Amino acid sequence: MSRQRKVALVGNPNAGKSALFNALTGARQKIANYPGVTVERKSGRFVLPTGEPVEMTDLPGAYGLDPTSPDEEVTSKVIRGAFEGEAVPDVLVIVLDASNLEQHLVFAQEVLALGKPSVIALNMVDLAERDGLVLDAAVLAEELGVPVISTVAVRRRGLAELGEAIANAGQRHAGPGLTDIGPTERRVAAHAMAGAAILSESRQYRLHASLDRLLLNPWLGPLILLGILFVVFQAVFAWATPFADALEASVGWLHDTVKATLPESLLRDLLTDGVISGVGSVIVFLPQIVILFAFILAMEASGYMARAAFLMDRMMAGVGLSGRSFIPLLSSFACAIPGIMATRSITDPKDRLTTILIAPMMTCSARLPVYAVIIAAFIPNTNVGAGVGLQGLVLLVLYLAGVLGAMAVALLMRSSMTKGAASGFIMEMPKYQMPRLKDMAIGLWQRAWIFLRRAGTIIFMVTVVLWLMLNFPKAGPGESQVDASIAGKIASGLAVVVEPIGFNRDMALALIPAMAAREVAVSSLATTYAVDAGDNEDEQAAELGDQLKARWTLPMALAFLAWFVFAPQCMSTIAVTRRETNGWKWPTFMLVYLFVLAYISAGVTYWIAVAAGL
Ligand SMILES: Nc1nc2c(ncn2[C@@H]2O[C@H](COP(=O)(O)OP(=O)(O)OP(=O)(O)O)[C@@H](O)[C@H]2O)c(=O)[nH]1
Ligand SMILES: [Mg+2]
């Protein structure tokens, strides 16, 4: 039996390769409206209309076959058959953005020159039409000597025809010589071909052009960006409340019901005080996570995110980074792991290293529960101006503190360890699009699922272990269970170290399991106070926020927040940094400098707050 044929999707960044890959294979690769989303190859199965199954590979976007960054290198190697352990593709599907034809044709010619059986997917014809372009695919097919199929990946248009063409793909039929021409000739040819294929062009760009003039204005642009962020953080608190309250009530009900139904035993206490109190205390933040990501996904899909990157470029250049670092840093607001992986699209190695090292300072979604629980307990829910909630404002300040800290560190590094000039900004602006509801729903569902899975696995496990360590050995009469326990003893040791920055024993206790994942800080506090409450019914009924208010002062709470802005409390981030930098040197450095920063900022916050009489 002959081996399964391989088909690879290639093209410029943001052409819609992953969207096409998803449509053809049913996969759920991340797609977003800016270049550099895919940084690793990914394969799936696709059955051609002839019934033949083929292996389809989605590749990172590239501008040329001479790679300038690690992700482009993957693409170049795979299509040349130089990727270790991977067979050379039999058919190439070259994906073009129809509304950006001339530019995309340059790379297409370079790929065609390889002489492999190829098919062109003229994608995004809907956007081209919207912009008033009428294209003739037949002219392009004639000029390039390969089949050209018009597609709209996100509406599954043209997929059958594309499958047909892949099944029949053969050598190029006649067409101009492509092999021995250089980049300049390719550009000239691309201009001529695009000119011939575009039948008519009415300038309907006006609205988008004026939108860009407004959003990219050097003065108004950053203000608008800040305004949008402001609304986002207000919404995270304001809109989530009813949902969070309902969730909290359900968790409380479950806790009480289990406690009332099961006979008194260690197992019952493990279930109620450990699992339900601990994991439940994290799950109640699901609505806030979903709201935050709804905004992020909408900004990504609409094309605004790329504009924000452009705006940030000046600031990034100021600290010695390029705008290319923006997308990785932005992904780090979800989680530093995909963020650090996204740095593969950064050309300059020192630029890339700096970006990796500061990525953990972007506020990942695991910090949101920690911030939210402390803010809800200690920051009054008042307005500091018309419609400006204080809680949302504090949250925004915490996010900004991370960003500013990162910028300061980048500046320091770029003028010492990773010295070098900032490279220029070369990202192209994607077109504005209305976010599609279905994509948003899938994206939100994926984020929610990641969050719930963490709650069900790592947070669950760490909570159970902590509960056991809190319950043994058993306290003698008159002694508090937490004081007597193993966990309490360990925490008392650590408390000596963190006392100077205002932390008490319980806070120290929360920091250790939170090394596994930051949200665990919340579940640890909930479990600790549930165990501490023992059989005292009033204390048991008290919600975590009330427990915190009763036991912590405001300066302590603020110091705890400041700690979490910087502390590198996430094993997976350290692991991925080791992988991406090929060694232990940089992850160790990252751990040390972030802990030092966290310690100093918590201490400074605490002592200033105390001095201010808070
Ligand atoms: N209107 C329209 N939008 C599309 C089409 N195909 C893709 N998109 C959108 O274009 C954007 C980019 O799509 P991706 O599939 O992420 O592009 P890519 O080529 O994989 O990009 P990289 O991974 O960065 O190289 C996304 O916002 C998609 O929703 C299309 O045919 N029509
Ligand atoms: Mg992609």
UniProtKB/TrEMBL annotation:
<feature type="transmembrane region" description="Helical">
    <location>
        <begin position="554"/>
        <end position="576"/>
    </location>
</feature>
<dbReference type="InterPro" id="IPR030389">
    <property type="entry name" value="G_FEOB_dom"/>
</dbReference>
<keyword id="KW-0812">Transmembrane</keyword>
<dbReference type="Pfam" id="PF07670">
    <property type="entry name" value="Gate"/>
</dbReference>
<dbReference type="GO" id="GO:0005886">
    <property type="term" value="C:plasma membrane"/>
</dbReference>
<feature type="transmembrane region" description="Helical">
    <location>
        <begin position="355"/>
        <end position="379"/>
    </location>
</feature>
<feature type="transmembrane region" description="Helical">
    <location>
        <begin position="450"/>
        <end position="470"/>
    </location>
</feature>
<feature type="transmembrane region" description="Helical">
    <location>
        <begin position="391"/>
        <end position="413"/>
    </location>
</feature>
<dbReference type="InterPro" id="IPR011642">
    <property type="entry name" value="Gate_dom"/>
</dbReference>
<dbReference type="InterPro" id="IPR011640">
    <property type="entry name" value="Fe2_transport_prot_B_C"/>
</dbReference>
<protein>
    <recommendedName>
        <fullName>Ferrous iron transport protein B</fullName>
    </recommendedName>
</protein>
<feature type="transmembrane region" description="Helical">
    <location>
        <begin position="214"/>
        <end position="240"/>
    </location>
</feature>
<dbReference type="Pfam" id="PF07664">
    <property type="entry name" value="FeoB_C"/>
</dbReference>
<feature type="transmembrane region" description="Helical">
    <location>
        <begin position="588"/>
        <end position="609"/>
    </location>
</feature>
<keyword id="KW-1133">Transmembrane helix</keyword>
<feature type="transmembrane region" description="Helical">
    <location>
        <begin position="275"/>
        <end position="297"/>
    </location>
</feature>
<dbReference type="InterPro" id="IPR050860">
    <property type="entry name" value="FeoB_GTPase"/>
</dbReference>
<dbReference type="Pfam" id="PF02421">
    <property type="entry name" value="FeoB_N"/>
</dbReference>
<dbReference type="GO" id="GO:0005525">
    <property type="term" value="F:GTP binding"/>
</dbReference>
<keyword id="KW-0472">Membrane</keyword>
<dbReference type="InterPro" id="IPR006073">
    <property type="entry name" value="GTP-bd"/>
</dbReference>
<dbReference type="GO" id="GO:0015093">
    <property type="term" value="F:ferrous iron transmembrane transporter activity"/>
</dbReference>
<dbReference type="InterPro" id="IPR027417">
    <property type="entry name" value="P-loop_NTPase"/>
</dbReference>
<feature type="domain" description="FeoB-type G">
    <location>
        <begin position="4"/>
        <end position="172"/>
    </location>
</feature>
